[in-house]
C-alpha cells in the first residue's frame, strides 16, 4: 500500500457534504468532512465522498476538485427526507455501498454519523477494508429529558452507536469531551479512540478591516445598535429560543440587534415558526434579522461585523461556529457544554455560561457590549486561538491516525 497516495472513501448517508451548512440537516459535520477531504486531495490522495441521492436531477458522480469526487448512491426515495427516516435506509444504502466498493475499491472507509457507520460496517467486513467511525453527535443518555420541541432519538441510535464503538476499527472524535462520551456512554476502548480537532479557514473567517470597520464604527457612533449573531440549523438542539429570550431581557433602549443565520431542517418548520413568534411577542421584529442559510463567505462577513456571537446549544461535540467567530476576532458567549469548553477559552476568548436562564445570558451580553476594551482583548485572543487551528494541521493529524491504523 502506498501511504503517500491512499484511496479514502468518506461515507455520509443522511446529509450530503456538498449541502450548504445551515440548510437541511447540514451543519458543522459537513464543514469538517468537506474541508478535510479537500486537504487530503491537495496532499495527493484520492478521496471520495459517498452519499445518498436525494434528488432525481442530481448526477451520480460530481467532480469537486482534482482528486476529489462525490458519488451519489440510489437508496430509498430520491427526495429530501427527515433525519429520522434514514434509519430505514441503513440496509439498502449499505448494499449500494458494498456494490460501489466492489467496483471501486478503497484503502479505508471513514463513516460520518452512526447511520453511515452501520451502513458501512457490513461492507467493510466483507471486503476487508478498515473502518474509521466519527459520530459528530452522540445520543443523549436515556434519562435525559427532551427540550421543548426537540426530536426524540431514533429508536436504534444508542444501540447502534455502542455497536460501532466496539466494532469499528477506530473511532475519531473532534474533542476530548466527545472522546469521554465515547468511553463512558458507549463503552469504547481508550486505545481505539483518537482525537482530531477541527480547523477553521482563517482567510475566509477573518477580523473586519478597512472600510468594513470604518462603516461599522460610524454606524455605532451615530447611535446604531451593535449586533449579536447566532448561526446554525433552526433546530431545538441549538437553542435559538434562548438567544432570543436573552436579548429580549435587555431593556429596549439598550437592546442590540439580533441576527439569526440558518434554515430549518426538513422536519423543523414548527420550531422555526416558534422563533418568529417569540420575536414578535418580544417586540423585536424591527431589531431582528432572519438571514436564512448563507454561503460560507457571506456568513463570514456577517460574523466579523457582529459585536458578539452566541452559541447557546444544549450540546456540541466541538462547536465550529465558536471557532469561526474566534477566527473573525469576535468574542463568543457559549453554553458550558461538551466541546464548547475547548472551542472557547473562558474569560480569554469569550465566556462560558453554566446557566440556561435568559437573565444570566442577558447580563453577560450587556457586560461585553458595554466593556468595549475587554471585548477587543477577547477578540484579539480569539483570533490567536483560531490561528492555531488550521485545516492543514487538522488534516495532517487525521492522516497520521489513518496511517497508524493501516500500518496495523
* CA gyration radius, whole angstroms: 21 Å
CATH class type of the largest domain: Alpha Beta
Which strand-content bin applies to the residues? 15-25%
Major β-sheet profile: 8 strands, mixed
Mean pLDDT: 91
What count of helical segments does DSSP give?
Answer: 14
Which architecture name of the largest domain does CATH use? 3-Layer(aba) Sandwich
Oligomer: single chain
**Alpha carbon gap, first and last residue:** 12 Å
Low-confidence stretches: 145-150
Query: What's the total count of β strands?
Result: 14
CATH superfamily of the largest domain: Glycogen Phosphorylase B
Outline type: globular
Element pattern in H and E: EHEEEHEHEHEHEHEHEHEHEHEHEHHH
Spatial strand sequence of the major β-sheet: 3-4-2-1-5-6-7-8
What features would you describe in this structure?
There is one protein chain. Residues about 145-150 have low confidence and may be disordered. This protein has helices at about 30-40, 90-105, 115-125, 155-165, 175-185, 210-220, 240-250, 270-280, 295-305, 320-325, 340-345, 360-370, 370-385, 390-405; strands at about 5-10, 45-50, 60-65, 70-75, 110, 130-135, 170-175, 195, 225-230, 255-260, 290, 310, 330-335, 350-355. The chain has 2 domains: about 5-200 and about 390-405, Rossmann fold (3-Layer(aba) Sandwich); about 210-385, 3-Layer(aba) Sandwich (Rossmann fold). Helix 3 (about 115-125) runs parallel beside helix 4 (about 155-165). Helix content is about 40%, strand content about 15%. The longest helix has 17 residues, at about 390-405. A hairpin with a 2-residue loop joins strand 3 and strand 4. It has about 400 residues and is α/β, with parallel strands linked by helices. The strands form 2 sheets. An 8-stranded mixed β-sheet has the order 3-4-2-1-5-6-7-8, with helices on both faces. Strands 11-10-9-12-13-14 form a 6-stranded parallel β-sheet, with helices on both faces.
